[in-house]
Amino acid sequence: MLGPVILAASRSDRMRRLISAAPVTKPVVDRFIPGETVGEIVPIIEELTGKGLEVTMDVVGEDITTPEQAAAARDAYLELIGRLKELGLGPKAEMSVKLSMFGQALPGGHELALANVRPVVEAAAAIGTTVTLDAEDHTTLDSMFAIHEELRKDFPATGCVIQAYLFRTEADARRLAASGSRVRIVKGAYKEPASVAYQNKHEIDKAYVRILKTLMEGEGYPMIGSHDPRIIAIAQDIARRAGRKLDEYEFQMLYGIRSEEHVRLAAEGHRMRVYTAYGTDWYGYFMRRLAEKPANLRFFARSVLTKS
Question: Which residues are identified as catalytic?
Answer without folding.
Answer: 134, 184
